[in-house]
Amino acid sequence: MSLVGNLEDLGLGDILQIVSLSRKSGVLVLASRNREGTIVFLNGQVIRATSSVSRDNLGDLLVRQGVVDLETLKNALMLQKQSQPPPRLGIILSENFGIPKDGIDKIVKETIENIVYSFFGWTEGTFSFELGEPEELAATQLNPLQFMLDQGLNPQWLAMEGSRIFDEKRHRGESLELPSERPMVDMEALLREVDNAAGVAVVTSDSAPGGSGLQPVQIYLVDDDVFTGEFLGRLLQELGYQVMTFSEAEATLEALERAVDEGENPVVVIDLIMPRMDGAGILGGMEVLEQVHGRYPDLRALLMSDHAHPDAERHVHALGLPAILAKPKKSDVRDEAGRNALQSLAQAIDSLLREEPAQGSYNFGADLLKELGEDSGAATTISAQGSAGLRQLKGMLQELSHPALGGGIILLVLRFASEFVNRAVMFLVQDEQIVGLGQFGIEIAEVLADARVRQTCIPTTEESIFLGALRQKVPMVVPFGTSDWDNYLSQQLGGKAPREVFLGPILSEGKVVAIIYGDNLPQGQPFGDTEPLEIFLSQAGLAMEKALLERRLRGRNDD
């Protein structure tokens, strides 16, 4: 299950209820007015919550409330640093220093509750829920001072209590926002002291990553895929960097402004393919890069992407920046090959940061607009088809945000596919068969073409051109097959077999629910750049999940 949408359409209380009933594990990311929050679920229970508004950490709260003194906290952090894998801070304090576990859990529980309750005041913005495995969530150790519970909190209780508190405070004219108090304990300084005491060498200007002379170099990692960002952040921490992860551009820029004001110079590592700040485009990473360099030209920035994008690569190369780094797709992160790819990515980032930064500055503004084809009066290096595809994708994604339920999403997919192929057929994947649903471009009598498509039925267990896309769950261009079912398909679509076909599966809740077939008959010209179509198909699957969940929710409300 993957769930994305607007908080205006589906409130936090409803989202908590849905995740609780499904007993899923994953991370819910909220973004509203330059604020970012996360709620982590383990088997449907809330085990962790963070907010960009709050500067609290567990160590500071324990000292502030008199549960531990500063020396005990420092010794506990030292033990945590020396343990592999490092246990959570509360466990060390309980088992090694006799601090009552109930007292620690009480503070953690109250803090998580207050963070979640504050999110009920975020009545506008966006949300996304990404599925994750329980063992991955339980093992997350990106922040040694994070708030996490072994026994999670019931989301349905949080939903009811949060709604009650929100209504009461709204009636009294009070805000649910968390107080932004400066911590009593300088935890960053304390952690540096622990590193030095543990025998971590102080890095000099000759050996520090990026040649900054500071220990450790700070990285702001920007990736809308939460799990990939956390895994990559952990790998970079193992290489000696201090990492902060962000999944939303506005929160990144706000944190970056605070950091620069305090005299820090973080390196910014940005995912290329992510939503733009207005929600309309897909190259949000380039937008972040433009904002970062425009405001802070002396900061170093790197781009990474799980989609090959030759035009963006040429643009980055022309600016004298390092090549866009390859990262694994989020669907591959959990297997061994994906983890190896992430390890290689972390090492590539490390190698680049150890090099001397290139001199000079670059102005991304007008050039980026030209590159994306958004300045009609300027020259562009993008091919006509690629530029048109990106411009069309921007508008189609806006339409996809508010499609008519039922066939609306399917019709949008067919309409966008007409920009890339001469003929297309949308198939639904039901049980063990693929059934035709709609088409365009089939050169037989119009009524007969629609009827013929709806009569087309191909088993998923038999050899056909669809098998590879159904099993791998990724778009692909393949030669037209020669099996009996491939011959049947060509007869159903007019009697002529194309040389190659485009197959684009649409995924919902991890399963292929539909697949679009495209070819370029009768001319038979080769396919151009289909990347915008592939991205649109992935977003169409998310839109289908949202529509399905909203219908389920309305059904429960009607009951």
Protein model, in words:
The protein has a six-stranded antiparallel β-sheet with strand order 13-12-11-16-15-14. A five-stranded antiparallel β-sheet has the order 1-5-2-3-4. The protein is built from 20 helices and 16 strands. A hairpin with a 2-residue loop joins strand 15 and strand 16 (about 510-520). It has three domains: about 1-200, no CATH class; about 200-380, Response regulator (Rossmann fold, 3-Layer(aba) Sandwich), CATH 3.40.50; about 385-559, Beta-Lactamase, CATH 3.30.450. With about 550 residues, it is an alpha+beta fold. The chain has helices at about 10-20, 60-65, 70-80, 90-95, 100-120, 135-140, 155-170, 185-195, 225-240, 250-260, 285-295, 310-320, 335-355, 365-370, 385-400, 410-415, 445-455, 465-470, 485-490, 530-559; strands at about 5, 25-30, 35-40, 45-50, 125-130, 220, 240-245, 265-270, 300-305, 325, 425-430, 435-440, 455-460, 475-480, 500-510, 510-520.
Write a concise keyword list for the protein shown above.
559 residues; alpha+beta; Rossmann fold; Beta-Lactamase; 3 domains; six-stranded antiparallel β-sheet; five-stranded antiparallel β-sheet; 20 helices; 17% strand; globular
